[in-house]
Design a protein that fits this description.
Number of strands: 6
Order of helices and strands: HHHHHHEEEEEE
Largest sheet: 3 strands, antiparallel
Low-confidence stretches: none
Oligomer: single chain
Mean pLDDT: 81
Structural class: alpha+beta
């Protein structure tokens, strides 16, 4: 079937349609591809902060030096904090030890004085025991009151007597003067106290001198 001859109007419409279509321009395709690649790289960098930061630091030597300086300062601050904590702990330990030493000195400052005073107490006790019937009641009462006053003063300052008669022998607080066979008592039992022992605030000042039982035979 033969084509209808085109009229001048048809030719004009065809020409205008052809002019309306986009014509390729040299280099536009390469620019479009490059722009797309750059956009894709930017998107990947934004999704990965580490990559972005590394790119920024590598592209900026001054920023890299600044980051290194910040890291150095942070390490210095951490070391200073650690040293301050150690110094505070050491100061607290020194203060605690000083307080303990002061407390110990306060509690046991009278130890030497107590040791010198104990023979006086021993003498008063022996004198009271040795008084015969010929001693007057007033005499016995005077010695007894003097002994009690001495004992009360010692107790006021934390001194207590050790009288372990009938108790198991304890070498930390007792000093055995003799061992005597005794079938009526368990072995290593204090049979008799020859001299009282004394403690000062729980610490031994003088051990008790005792006679200890042992198994018969």
């Amino acid at each position: 079937m033969a084509r209808d001859p085109q009229t001048p109007l048809d030719e004009e419409l065809a020409r205008r349609e052809q002019e309306a279509e986009p014509q390729p321009i040299e280099g536009e395709l390469e620019d479009a591809v490059e722009a797309a690649e750059q956009e894709e790289a930017s998107a990947e960098a934004s999704d990965n902060p580490e990559v972005s930061d590394n790119l920024e630091v590598s592209d900026n030597p001054e920023a890299e030096l600044l980051a290194a300086r910040v890291e150095e300062l942070e390490q210095t601050v951490a070391e200073a904090k650690d040293q301050a904590l150690r110094a505070a702990a050491e100061a607290q330990n020194v203060r605690r030890r000083a307080e303990q030493e002061a407390e110990k000195a306060r509690k046991f400052a009278l130890e030497k004085f107590v040791k010198e005073l104990l023979p006086v107490v021993d003498s008063l006790e022996k004198a009271l025991e040795a008084m015969a019937d010929e001693a007057t009641e007033a005499h016995r009462e005077g010695v007894s009151m003097t002994l009690k006053m001495q004992q009360d003063v010692l107790a006021k300052f934390g001194v207590e007597a050790v009288e372990p008669s009938g108790e198991p022998f304890d070498p930390q607080f007792h000093e055995a003067m003799a061992m005597v066979p005794n079938p009526e008592l368990e072995p290593s039992t204090v049979m008799e106290v020859m001299q009282k022992g004394y403690l000062l605030n729980g610490r031994l000042v003088r051990p008790a001198m005792v006679i200890v039982s042992q198994a018969a035979g």
